[in-house]
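quick q for whoever's on today - can somebody do inverse folding on this one?? i tried earlier but teh output was garbage lol. tokens:
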């Protein structure tokens, strides 16, 4: 497997972390980059998403205004998962094996896509390790993964609409989500106490993330997404998550930075980080 190369001297990992915080035995979270976009329906480029997220992460500030110094939990970055020409099912199987290995190490798996078909492998691995797993998916379209609560839906194929009519499932369009007005109970009640979260960046509005294969209007904004993730993290245990479908645009790095910040903040939320607790740890380390 070929390691990515970067223009600066920072370590080739998420956040550009020193070994103290990037070593596997020290890390609580493990990043799995999976560059793959075999079946993208419109604009390609999602295979470039993982490297763009990693590159942006190495240039962002590591003190987060909500969750503090997340890197102190330890974040290990695996080499890129080598793509296969055998199709999405074979690639999802590779993801499944890798995520299963991460879970056996008792780490939080964080998958960077790549196209959304990769999520199926991650969910299968998590479901074997976690009894009663549920999935929260934030995406533009509905896809059949496992029983899941879906948020930010604003586009359906005719086949998906027919499937949902025959098999009703917890689902909120962007308009319905906003009508909740910050009342999280309906969404939380649709989840179990162990949750895998999959975030397709095309579920965000393209005014914030234009770098995706299907940038349709009417998505969630940054604060709506983060508020929901915070509520889920406070009331359940997030056992893994992914950020997929970033298709970097030349000369436009805002989407890459948003995705990198989203990964970083979500790791912090998974571990119950806060600015107060992180500040206390920082002061203790300096004493």
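ok took a stab at it. sequence:
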């Amino acid at each position: 497997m070929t390691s990515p190369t970067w223009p600066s001297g920072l370590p080739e990992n998420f956040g550009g972390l020193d070994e103290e915080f990037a070593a596997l035995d020290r890390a609580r979270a493990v990043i799995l980059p999976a560059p793959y976009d075999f079946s993208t329906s419109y604009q390609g480029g999602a295979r470039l998403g993982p490297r763009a997220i990693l590159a942006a992460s190495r240039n962002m500030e590591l003190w987060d205004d909500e969750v503090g110094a997340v890197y102190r939990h330890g974040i290990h970055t695996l080499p890129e998962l080598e793509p296969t020409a055998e199709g999405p099912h074979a690639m999802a199987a590779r993801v499944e094996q890798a995520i299963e290995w991460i879970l056996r190490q008792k780490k939080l798996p964080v998958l960077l896509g790549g196209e959304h078909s990769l999520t199926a492998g991650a969910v299968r691995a998590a479901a074997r390790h976690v009894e009663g797993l549920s999935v929260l998916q934030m995406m533009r379209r509905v896809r059949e993964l496992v029983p899941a609560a879906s948020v930010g839906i604003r586009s359906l194929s005719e086949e998906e609409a027919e499937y949902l009519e025959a098999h009703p499932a917890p689902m909120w369009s962007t308009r319905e989500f906003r009508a909740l007005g910050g009342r999280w109970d309906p969404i939380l009640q649709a989840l179990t106490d162990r949750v895998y979260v999959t975030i397709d960046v095309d579920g965000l509005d393209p005014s914030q993330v234009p770098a995706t294969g299907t940038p349709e209007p009417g998505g969630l904004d940054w604060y709506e997404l983060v508020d929901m993730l915070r509520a889920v993290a406070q009331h359940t245990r997030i056992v893994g998550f992914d950020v997929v479908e970033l298709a970097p645009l030349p000369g436009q790095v805002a989407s890459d930075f948003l995705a990198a910040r989203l990964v970083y903040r979500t790791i912090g939320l998974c571990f119950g980080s806060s600015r107060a607790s992180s500040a206390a740890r920082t002061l203790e380390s300096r004493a």
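fwiw Residues 1-8, 276-287 have pLDDT under 50 and may be disordered. also The CA atoms of residues 144 and 163 lie 9 Å apart. so keep that in mind when u check it
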